[in-house]
Design a protein that fits this description.
Elements: E1 7-12, E2 18-26, E3 34-41, H1 45-57, E4 63-66, H2 68-71, H3 85-93, E5 97-100, H4 113-130, E6 138-140, H5 148-154, E7 160-162, E8 187-188, H6 196-208, E9 211-216, H7 229-241, E10 246-248, H8 251-263, E11 265-270, E12 276-281, E13 288-294, E14 298-302, E15 311-313, E16 316-320, E17 328-332, E18 337-340, E19 346-353
Parallel strand pairs: 3-4, 3-9, 3-10, 4-5, 6-7, 8-9, 13-19
Antiparallel strand pairs: 1-2, 2-13, 11-12, 14-17, 15-16, 16-19, 17-18
Zinc ion binds near residues 41, 101 and 142.
Amino acid sequence: MVNWVLLAFALLWSRPATAQVEVSLQPWPGTARAALTITFDDAYPSQAAVAMPLLEARGFRGTFYLIVDRLFQRGKYQDLPSAPLADWQAGFRRGHEVGSHTWTHVGLDTVSTQRMQEELRAAKEALEGLFPGAPVTSLAYPFSEADEAVMQEAARYYLTGRLGPSPAGEPPYNDPATAALMGLKAFFLCTGEDPQLWNEAADRTLQGGGWLVEALHPIDEEGYCRVREEDFAAHLDYLAGLGGQLWVAPVGQVAARLLHWRAAQLHSAVLADGRVQLHLTEPASEDWQVTLSAAGNWKVIDGDGRLLPLSAAGGALGFEWPAGQASATLESAGITAISASNWGQIKEFFLVRTP
Ligand SMILES: [Zn+2]
């Protein structure tokens, strides 16, 4: 399986010089170097009333893991109201994701197999009925508890399952290549912490090229891990300030893209004249970016021989893939020429100068 394509090859020229070229398919869209998802558990009223507007003001959308019983104030939620169902539905129509936090919020590994199966299946069905047009594919395990049997059963209904924080010493984010989607690690934001820690986790995720899944509970409201609105808003401002470096999107969107990326393969062939032809097999119509590291200075020529402008992006050099053209040529300032054809959906290409 080639889910992370890293190709290195040496090109020999008439002069005794060697050019090292590495190309890799990047998992995130545009110029993003990492992904971040903001999730909310337990259907607290403040999530619809406070968190949604805060997110939207910055162009973000979140994932809200709802408990069916709480939406109707049943069972152990008789005295714990949620936001009005209409508010959740309006939020969904504005682009937020509805996820499942099961029917009654019970530890799935503490109940009978039949009950566990019912919590997973019935909650998905009920939520999809309440939110027409929503495929409910994202699950958060109650109390972050799941054993192998729970995860296997959950995978019948959901694309992802969110667990708790990673063990101390491990990165707080998920690795796009190796993370088990039914066992995603979360990063909890809680009262009493220095909110600067939240920004630092985003920084580490950027550095590691990972996917950070933040987990929140109430905002300025009684409850587990409550955070202050002011702190949360400041954190969102920080994330917004990172601009295109960070892709902020709901769990379902990131997971779907990761599955496409893991299935995509980038093939290369070194031609007799030293040019390198690249071919991408990709089952979905995503826009991909390719990172290329190569020694020397490069210029980019489109299929009609026009020089394409390079732009700096995220520490790399990039250019827009020429619209309607199947190939482009990368030429060094000297005699090196690398040509790409049959690129399919690739829209962007990035060059990185090695020191
Ligand atoms: Zn919960």
